[in-house]
Write a structure and sequence with these properties.
Pfam families: PBP_dimer, Transpeptidase. It contains 19 helices and 25 strands. The protein is elongated and about 140 Å long. The relative contact order is 0.11.
Length: 593
């Protein structure tokens, strides 16, 4: 039988449990209300009591490297030091195991010793920020701090000093390939050269971290949300850095010695069409763009077009041989000045009697009259077609911004003079890469490879993207191309320049060009020329095209101005690529019959 005494404790226990359960249910209901039902409102309330912050995460712009992977353009880490003026003040620091208070003026002096700023200047930065806004939470201590400065400042452990990290573009070899690589602006935007052309490969994408912090500036744990940055890709060029450096020194010396406006040396690999060097002077140092005149910050090599002159006589020779109307030994009778049946007048650079020139001899003596007679063996339409095949008027596959296509008027628009002028490199315009491309086709058995500056782009995820280039094009038969290459060998050994451009142990093929320069008001300038010298090395096993140009040299005004630069450039190319010497001599062909 249950008594009153035993029922009372049980009732009290049940009552206590009921109270506990009621309280617990209240907590659960409130928790659900806070975290589920009214979560957004409570988050908004908390944000009003905390301080939101965003830190940018900078992606790194991709490197530009040469054919061997050596950096031509890269990015280094720089830091922007930021102060929290509202929280600036003394800091606690442990000295010999004892906590001491370091006053703000001493902290400012320690910062200044690292950044190179007077302590008073740093303190003024804080005072100015607070004067503008008593609750200011941001002011720059200094932007563009080096890694060493950043580490030293971080070691001060000042809670009111934080850092933003970002990359900055730098060019380890300065002006080496400066006109090709180009440069970026202070805001990181690409402004010229490969930096601009290949920005799709090189560009990075920034990310950010958002977080909440308390009134003391401390980040509230668990509030960080990160959107990661994406780095740019690595762009590999076909350029050989060491060869580029040497040739830039060489052309700088030659331009100054010959008192020319500018000059360039271009090296193209015969089998591939890859540009191994594109040296220019004047040039630009991408690390210090303002030190160069605005006109020197681009690339004349890829942007300047001119009448190629005598260098393109080789294309006339290839055309008539490929068409089957002439051979290297075919002859024409030519004086040094003649008037043709249609009234056109053509003269040679040097006086000579009437000679029975072979096609080879016409190239050796660079006779405009003889080349005109060989050229008229083909119709204007056929010769126009051959010029197009060799790239005249078609630009290149390089894709340089504003690169001229070159001017080649339709054959139907050629007047009487132009009909003959086009046989010896006048009446149309080309860029230096186009001229080199035409010779690449001759040296490569008539197979014209698209010129290229870019090897590949390796994206941040490891994907390798190669350039989309046009298919190679057979512009003339191998027999015709080989015949002209041998004829150009004879130019190199039988023309007046022979002793000046010879390289011991190697067979070379070469041709000069002394082109008239168009005047600003029409016609040609008087007494000045755009001179060039182009060659195939070695001629018996063609591997490289070397082209040198000088714009209006004055100490020597003809293509003879290019001899020294050409000979030195060829020699360096052969050394650089360890090309084996020739094991035979150039077979001599008759100049006249």
């Amino acid at each position: 039988m249950t008594t009153r005494a035993t029922r009372s404790p049980r009732r009290r226990t049940v009552a206590a449990l009921a109270v506990v359960l009621a309280v617990l249910c209240g907590f659960i209901i409130r928790l659900v209300d806070i975290q589920v039902v009214n979560a957004e409102g409570h988050i908004a309330d908390s944000q009003e009591l905390a301080f939101g912050a965003v830190t940018d995460l900078y992606g790194t712009r991709g490197e530009i490297v040469d054919a061997d992977g050596e950096a031509l353009a890269t990015s280094i880490l720089m830091y922007d030091g930021k102060l929290d003026p509202a929280n600036v003040g003394p800091i606690e620091r442990e000295v010999d195991g004892v906590e001491v208070e370091v006053p703000w003026d001493q902290v400012a002096a320690e910062m200044g010793a690292i950044t190179g700023q007077p302590a008073a200047e740093i303190m003024q930065i804080v005072d100015d920020a607070l004067a503008a806004d008593a609750g200011s939470r941001f002011a720059y201590l200094q932007r563009g701090l080096t890694t060493e400065q950043y580490r030293a400042l971080a070691d001060l452990r000042a809670p009111f000093l934080t850092f933003d990290m970002h990359p900055q573009r730098t060019y380890p070899d300065g002006a080496v390939a400066g006109n090709v690589v180009g440069f970026v602006g202070s805001d990181g935007e690409p402004l010229a050269g490969i930096e601009q052309i290949e920005n799709t490969c090189l560009a990075s994408a920034n990310g950010q971290v958002t977080y909440m912090r308390g009134a003391d500036g401390v980040v509230i744990p668990g509030t960080e949300v990160e959107t990661p940055a994406v780095d740019g890709g690595t762009l590999q060029l076909t350029i050989d850095r060491d060869l580029q450096w040497y040739l830039q020194q060489l052309i700088a010396e030659e331009v100054q010695n010959k008192q020319a406006n500018s000059g360039a040396i271009l090296v193209v690999e015969v089998a591939t069409g890859k540009i191994r060097a594109a040296a220019e002077y004047p040039t630009v140092d991408p690390n210090n763009v303002d030190a160069s005149a605005a006109s020197d910050r681009g690339s004349r090599l890829f942007l300047a077009s001119y009448e190629p002159g005598s260098t393109l006589k080789a294309i006339t020779a290839a055309s008539v041989i490929d068409a089957g109307v002439a051979t290297p030994d075919t002859t024409v009778s030519a004086g040094d000045y003649e008037t043709f049946p249609n009234g056109a007048r053509v003269g040679d650079f040097e006086s000579h009697p009437v000679l029975n020139y072979t096609l080879t001899g016409a190239l050796i003596d660079s006779s405009n009259v003889a080349l005109s007679k060989f050229g008229e063996m083909l119709s204007a339409d056929v010769r126009h077609d051959y010029l197009e095949r060799f790239g005249v008027g078609r630009g290149t596959a390089i894709g340089w911004p504003s690169e001229p296509q070159g001017v080649l008027h339709p054959a139907a628009e050629w007047d009487n003079q132009t009909f003959y002028a086009t046989t010896f490199g006048q009446g149309y315009t080309m860029t230096s890469p186009q001229v080199a491309s035409a010779y690449q086709a001759l040296a490569n058995g008539g197979l014209k490879m698209p010129l290229s500056l870019v090897e590949s782009c390796t994206l941040a995820d490891g994907t390798v993207v190669e350039p989309d280039l046009p298919e190679p094009e057979q512009v003339v038969s191998k027999e015709a191309a080989d015949a002209v290459t041998l004829m150009l060998e004879n130019v190199a050994v039988q023309a007046q320049m022979a002793d000046y451009i010879a390289v011991d142990g190697y067979r070379i093929a070469a041709k000069t060009g002394t082109a008239q320069v168009a005047g600003s008001t029409g016609g040609y300038k008087s007494g000045v020329y755009f001179t060039s010298l182009i060659g195939i090395v070695p001629a018996d096993d063609p591997q490289y095209i070397v082209l040198t140009t000088l714009d209006e040299p004055t100490t020597i005004k003809s293509s003879a101005a290019n001899r020294q630069a050409f000979q030195k450039a060829m020699t360096q190319v052969l050394k650089n690529y360890r090309v084996l010497p020739s094991d035979s001599q150039t077979p001599l062909l008759p100049k006249t019959l």
